[in-house]
Amino acid sequence: MGSNQGDRSGMTQTVKQKPEHGLPRTIAESLKHLIFTGELKPGERLNEAALALRMGTSRGPIREAIRILAGSGIVTAVVNRGVYVRQISVREMLEIYDLRALIFGFAAQRATENLTEEHRSHFERLLADMDQACEKEDGSRYYDLNLEFHALVLMLSNNQRAHQAYNDYVNELHLFRRKYFNSPGNMRNSNVEHRLIYEAIISGNASKAKIMAERHVLSGRHRLLSSVDPGGA
Fold first, then answer.
1. On the chain, which terminus has fewer CB atoms closer than 10 Å, C or N?
2. What contacts 29, CB < 8 A, 6 or more positions away?
């Protein structure tokens, strides 16, 4: 309990120090952190007054921050009832994974055309850091590095629409995905798949890169599904 209070006071201090024009976005990031760590749970109503008090600001920036989150699909507004942390059914999750697989496969295929030595070094650094996170069984660190790996592949696709669509799907799945990355076995299997994608990209094998990338996302879906209560379908 003491640790949570420390985190909250630190968050409040950070929010207060930000310039007023950037405050809503800063608050949105803070709220995302609370949602992704499970402190604000799926289906929970966001209370503007309570959040304003907690973060040491007025309700205006809180309201604007909530609009930002609604735009990215993380929270949902219900007419005459308020705004709630989004709940996603297992069926929705499976459909989103199918679309993610298609876009990620496309991105990996295109990445073979745009890889530079700098990108290669970035990939190798990420893979090494993810191996280290596996050894330390640090699911939170691995999750963030995993997002960075995928973002690098999407960036190399040189297709902004694909990148934006993929980010939208990832945002919707955060609530499901963060939990299962805590499993050391899942992390290790995931990073083996990352290496296969990377090796296909650096070898210039576009068709293999596409197949490995699609397979990676669908394998992630399987790992996630095995940890989800089927009653949520």
1. N
2. none
Nearest 5°: CA angle at 228, between 154 and 108?
15
Beta-carbon contacts of residue 148 (< 8 Å; ≥ 6 apart): 126
Return d(Cα 195, Cα 197) in angstroms, integer.
5
**Which fold, 2-85?**
Arc Repressor Mutant, subunit A (1.10.10)
Enter the DSSP assignment of 159. -
Alpha carbons 165 and 102: distance in angstroms, whole number: 11
Secondary-structure class of domain 90-232 per CATH: mainly alpha
Structure tokens at 27: 């608050």
Contacts of 97 (CB under 8 A, 6+ apart): 173, 217, 218, 220, 221, 224
Report which of 118, 120, 112 is spatially closest to residue 210, judged by C-alpha positions.
Answer: 112
What dihedral do alpha carbons 206, 212, 214, 219 form, nearest 10°?
Answer: 180
Token pair belonging to 140 = 């939170």
Place of tokens 């073979």: 112
- Domain residues of the chain, as ranges? 2-85, 90-232
